[in-house]
Amino acid sequence: MDISNLQTIEHDIIVVGAGGAGIRAAIECSMRGLSTGLVCKSLLGKAHTVMAEGGVAAALGNVDSRDHWKVHFRDTMRGGKFFNNWRMAELHAKHAPDRVRELEEWGAVFDRTDQGLISQRNFGGHRYPRLAHVGDRTGLEIIRTLQDKGVHQGFEIYMECACLDLIKSDGRISGMVGMWRESGSFVVFKAKAVILATGGGGKCWKITSNSWEYTGDGYGMAYEAGAELIDMEFTQFHPTGMVWPPSVRGTLVTEGVRGEGGILINNEGRRFMFENIPERFVAETADTQEEAARWLAGDRDARRPPELLTRDVVARAIRKEVKAGRGSPHGGAFLDIATQRSSQDIVRKLPSMYHQFKVLAELDITTETMEVGPTLHYFMGGVRVDADTQMTSVAGLFACGECAGGVHGANRLGGNSLSDLLVFGKLAGEGAFEYVQSEKKPTALDSEQVITIIKTATNILNRETGENPYLLHESLQEVMQSDVGIVRTESLLNQGINKLSGLWNKYKTVKAAGASQFNPGWHEALALRNMLITSEAV
Length: 538
Fold this sequence. Notes:
Blueprint: E1 7-10, E2 13-16, H1 20-31, E3 36-39, E4 56-57, H2 69-79, H3 86-105, E5 120-121, E6 131-132, H4 138-153, E7 156-158, E8 161-169, E9 172-180, E10 186-190, E11 193-196, H5 217-224, E12 229-230, E13 235-242, H6 256-259, E14 263-265, H7 289-296, H8 311-323, E15 333-336, H9 343-349, H10 351-361, E16 370-379, E17 382-383, E18 397-399, H11 416-438, H12 447-462, H13 469-483, H14 490-507, H15 520-537
Parallel strand pairs: 1-10, 2-3, 2-11, 3-7, 11-18
Antiparallel strand pairs: 4-6, 5-6, 8-9, 9-10, 12-17, 13-16, 14-15, 15-16
Helix pairs in contact: 1-4, 1-11, 2-3, 3-11, 5-15, 9-10, 13-14, 13-15, 14-15
C-alpha cells in the first residue's frame, strides 16, 4: 500500500473529541496561534457534555459567602476517598471560578440570584450551594457557548470521523489514522501533538447513561501508544437513572432533582437515606426529616438532607433497598419532588426533567413519583497525565476531561465534571502549546504503522466468516453488568476476567458484513477493541 495516495491533513495540534474538554482545549490552542484541528466521532454538539444537566461546580460564593476554593478542594478530596491526585484537585478548585466567569464573558446565560449574580444550587457532597446552572440544561448551554466561541476562533472541525490509532515516530506522537464514517475511506492526520478528549466508556455496560459514542476510544488508543491508565476500577454508577420503561432504562435523572429538594423513598413510603449516613458525613448531614425540611426552607444552620450524600453512597443505598425487597416495581426506588416543591417551581427549575418524563414515561413529575435506579455514568480513572500540563508519559500526547484520570479519586462529586473539563481543557491546550513551541524536529510519519493500522481495520471486512460484532458487544455488556457492577467481589471479578479472555479470542475473528461505505457493523467492530481494553483495565 502506498500511503502517498491517502488523504493527509496536517495541523500543529489535533484534538480528538468535541465535548467541553475538547472544544476548550482547541480554543486555547487556536488562541495561542497554533493550527488546530478538532476531530469528532459524530456531529458537533452531540457530545455527552450536553447530558450534564445539574450545573458546573465552582466556589463563587454567590449564594453562600462561606464557600471558598479550599472548601471545594476539601469536598473533592473527601468525595474521592483521598485517592485523588491532590495537585489536580487543587488546580481544579482554584481555577473553576475563573473558568465559569470566562464562560459568562463568552455569552453563557446562567440563572440569576435576586441580586443579579450567577445562581448556585446544592448538590451531593458539596458543603455549600456551588453549582452554577442554567435550569437543568447546563451542559447544553456550555457546549453552545464553547461552540460559538470555537467557530469564531477559527480552528478546523472534522465531523463523523472515527479515530483508529495514534502514530508515533522516535517515541513521540506524530499523528493519527482516522476513518470517515460515511464513506469508509481512511485519512491520516499529521500533527506535532494530539490531545485526547474522548470521554468515557459507558457502553461497555448494559445499563448506562452514556450514548453510543462512549466506547473507551481514548483509553484504548492511549494504551496502545504506550501511555498509562490509572484508577480504571473507579467507575461511577449515578444513583438516579430511569428504570422504566425498558427502552429508556439508564437515561439520566439529574441530581438537580435532589438538589431542589427531591426525596428518595422505598415501597413502604420510608425515606431510607436517613438509615444510610456514613460516619464521616454524620456531622454535616440531617438525621431527622424536620431538620431536612428546615434546610430546604433556607435555614443556613440546618444540616443537609441525606439524599445529597455522595453518589456512591446513594447508589449503594438504593441497591440495598432493592435487594431487601423494598424497591419500586421495576427494580429501583421512588424519587419524589412533587411533595417538596410547587408545580410551578418544578417546571421552572427542572424543565428538561419534566419534559423527559412526560415524553418517555408518560409521567407528570409535578404530581407523581419517579422510579430511579443506578446507571453507569462516569469514569473517574483514565489516562495518567501531568497535573499542570496534562501530558501523558508519551511525548506529544495529552489527555483531558473524562479521558484523563486523577482529579476525582474513587468517586466524582456532581458538577465537578463540567468544571473539570473547563479547567483541564484549558491546561491541556496550554501544555500542548508549550510542547509544540519546544519541539524543533519536523514531524515525520511512520508509513509502516499507517499501513498496519489500515490493514487491521480492513481485515474485519475482508474475512469470509467470523464473529458478529453486535453479539460480541452484547456479551461484553452482560459480563460487565453482572460481574463488574456496583458491588464487586474477588470471585465475580475473576469470573469476569475469564469471560473477557474468551471475548478477546472471539474478537480476533470478528467479521462485519457489507462494504466499507457507512457500515454500522464495521464501526461497531472497530470500537470493540477499545471497549475490551477498557473493560479489562476496569
